[in-house]
Amino acid sequence: xxxxxxxxxxxxxxxxxxxxxxxxxxxxxxxxxxxxxxxxxxxxxxxxxxxxxxxxxxxxxxxxxxxxxxxxxxxxxxxxxxxxxxxxxxxxxxxxxxxxxxxxxxxxxxxxxxxxxxxxxxxxxxxxxxxxxxxxxxxxxxxxxxxxxxxxxxxxxxxxxxxxxxxxxxxxxxxxxxxxxxxx
Length: 184
Ligand SMILES: Nc1ncnc2c1ncn2[C@@H]1O[C@H](COP(=O)(O)OP(=O)(O)OP(=O)(O)O)[C@@H](O)[C@H]1O
Ligand SMILES: [Mg+2]
Fold this sequence. Notes:
Layout: H1 4-17, E1 22-30, E2 35-42, H2 49-56, H3 71-81, E3 86-91, E4 95-103, H4 115-125, E5 130-137, E6 140-145, H5 146-153, H6 161-179
This protein binds adenosine-5'-triphosphate (ATP) and magnesium ion.
């Protein structure tokens, strides 16, 4: 089964492919609003308005000249299935912001899955780019900024064995603490 954490990996990977040097990934859980929101913001190459339109309409577009991927359409479909929505704001040369919201208690909402694992994989697979991760669980916030870690461990790389082990522990522990035993 596809989990939200898989979408996180997928969509953040788009930012890496777009040449982003900084990618922000935000997970926001509001139990009061019955909402889970994922936000991805990057300083990569961006997309034209036409491109934004075509990536969200892959099944209706008549263009056959270009391969159209499935990451964004799947995210959009999942969001809409749960009564949420996906939005893309992008500017060529500046960057992209993708937001997807999900109705938390909707029967079709995929489980959250292993967000710590997804974040960790993104860091060790892309040790030379920076990430700003934020997990907001009902207002309790965990922030992880690879720029800070990078400065602290310089000249060692983020995927150095002991450093990556620490990053992994930190992410799992902090997110677990935020959830306080609540499985989403
Ligand atoms: N953050 C981004 N910055 C710039 N371009 C993007 C970004 N995200 C998506 N795109 C563009 O939109 C296209 C479609 O993205 P999507 O994730 O739907 O599919 P894909 O990445 O091409 O393939 P797949 O995710 O299925 O492997 C990408 O190929 C890319 O050209
Ligand atoms: Mg993709």
